[in-house]
Amino acid sequence: PEITQAHIRGETARLQALIDRMLRLTGYFSALAGAVFWVLGCPLARTLYHSPEAGFYLEVLGPAMPLLYFESMVDGAMKGMGEQKAAFRYSVWDSILRIVGVVLLLPRYGMPGFLFVILVSSCLANTGRLLASSETKLRLWRWLGAPMLASAGAAAVGVALRQGLAGWFTGALLPRLGALALCAGGMSAVYLVAAWPLGLGEEVRAALAKKH
Fold first, then answer.
1. How far apart are CA 176 and CA 173, in angstroms?
2. 202: DSSP letter
3. DSSP 53-83
4. In this model, does residue 87 exceed pLDDT 80?
5. pLDDT for residue 141
6. Which of 6-20, 118-132, 158-172, 198-212 has the lowest mean pLDDT?
7. Closest CA to 194 of 149, 155, 161, 156
8. pTM
9. How far is the first Cα of the chain from the last one, in angstroms, to the nearest whole number?
10. Considering Cα of 56, then 93, then 106, then 63, what sign does the dihedral take?
């Protein structure tokens, strides 16, 4: 609603600030989610779904989660700015690109090929149209670079914790849930410490100041 309001009123500076904040926070939260799914996909799927195969797909899709989150948020922002037709057009072309990519790459490269299709097709055209319509500058470091850097540290800690708690993951349900909670909590704590000076702290302080 705030994006729509700023667009209707012609408040370009406010619109750009809102889009920048939306994409920045999306990058931070999605990078953490992607790291958690990449590290804990298999034990999580075994615990919740009793399916190692599901865990494989969670791990494969983990690195693509930031772009999938971006795709959803950018689509909503475009509709808020009256770009419904453009959003629909890009969605159709994106679907066609994915289908062609799956037909050509999936039989030969398997899931890595499918992941490549998602990474290439996700939100590229939509994001370009959104930035052009709002006259917002591209800031890859703020939106993806810094979050991915913090998530790399969190993932490294998660891998170490998963290896250290390997015995818990093969035990009964409660030890497995405890191991998952410890790994996810440890990753989240490390991510918060790493991401805070990279820009997350700035956004949190700005949000708290706005409430007061």
1. 5
2. H
3. HHHHHHHHHGGGHHHHHHHHHHHHHHHHTT-
4. no
5. 93
6. 118-132
7. 149
8. 0.84
9. 20
10. negative
Of 210, 94, 74, residue with least CA distance to 134: 74
Among residues of the chain, what percentage have pLDDT more than 70? 96
Q: How confident is the model at residue 145 (pLDDT cuts 50, 70, 90)?
A: very high
Among 69, 49, 54, residue whose Cα is nearest residue 151 = 69
- Decide: 155 and 35 in contact? Cβ < 8 Å: yes
Tokens of 177: 């849930």
Residue 144 CB neighbour total at 10 angstroms:
20
In eight-state DSSP terms, residue 198 is G
The alpha carbon of residue 207 and the mean position of all alpha carbons in its chain are separated, in whole angstroms, by 20
Say how many C-beta atoms besides its own lie within 10 A of residue 135's C-beta.
Answer: 11
